[in-house]
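User: Here's a protein and a ligand (geranylgeranyl diphosphate). What would the complex look like?
Assistant: Let me lay out the input and then the predicted complex.
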Amino acid sequence: MDGKTITKGRANGNGHAVRSILPVLERDAHRNGHGPIGSGELAFSGIQGTLALAPLSLDGLHERVEDALGKVEFVVAQGADRLAEAARYALLAGGKRVRPILVLATAQAMGVPIEDALSTACAIEMIHTNSLIVDDLPAMDNHPKRRGRPALHRVYGDDIAILAGCALLSEAQRLILEEQSGPAELRNHLLRVVLQATGSTGMVSGQFLDVTRYRPGSSHDLERTQMLKTGTLIVACVRCGALLADREMGQAFTGFAHSLGVLFQVVDDILDETGKARWLGKMPGSDRRKGKMTNVTLFGLEYARRTATEYYERCQVHLDEIASSAPGSVAALREIADLVHERNR
Ligand code: GRG
């Protein structure tokens, strides 16, 4: 790959929050209309050297996400530096980055350059990080550890942790509105999708049902409540990836996103029962201790394991369908399904 890079600011004016470093050849490939089904490693073939961009793997996408998140700047008022420091402590603590990678992998499958999906991907990870900060507070789940180190409120105090969560939320929205490339209509649409998934129609209601120990009437009802808490954001990642290609999710993508959302939470329930603290980065067994309604506490470990297998298999069926018509590679989406199924943290 050509080692030469350019730095491209993506903000409209001052205060670039996410800067991108594109290999010159990659940039030119986009401009010349050769590219990109995916984005990443450059390969040449044929006498004329036809440019083809090899899709990025999970690791490659992970690297792009970490790089972009590391460049997010929290612009704060004079005297509020510790607020930015706290937000960065939570954001750069090394999560798995499943959600932003899912945005990028979907975009890649739809033939969108990774570069064009990074702002929305980062914004979603920032909102997810906010939800972890809030969930960890003593008034909620009271987790002392998160992502392998002391939870934010244990280091900075509840007050600063809440404010850092607010900063992550507002900066995430600004990223989509100001840093995301494309027409205003697209940016508004992306933001609507993200807010629908994370606000009172989605995650916030899911968390409400969780903290008030809502007792689901059936396994179907449990799935509904878990979709609110966890699954809607995962579906939103796929939807945003598709929107970036100016498409709504078709039946196959919808089925995949829903199955992955359910799979993610079922595996989370299993890990809370069977996982090891050193891998999870937080204490296991918290669901049972706190009387949470999960696949494991309500229906048992065997049921949860069967459900995980069933939804993993559903992911595979939908991925086969997607692979038969998507313009780009679905390999990274397959890797995500494997990761979500097999993870130990
Ligand atoms: C977003 C406005 C707004 C409010 C938040 C607190 C709250 C409302 C929601 C909490 C929802 C919650 C904690 C859901 C659990 C989701 C979950 C399984 C988190 C763990 O995600 P991983 O495993 O974690 O992807 P890493 O650390 O890898 O990112």
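Summary: Residues 1-52 have pLDDT under 50 and may be disordered.
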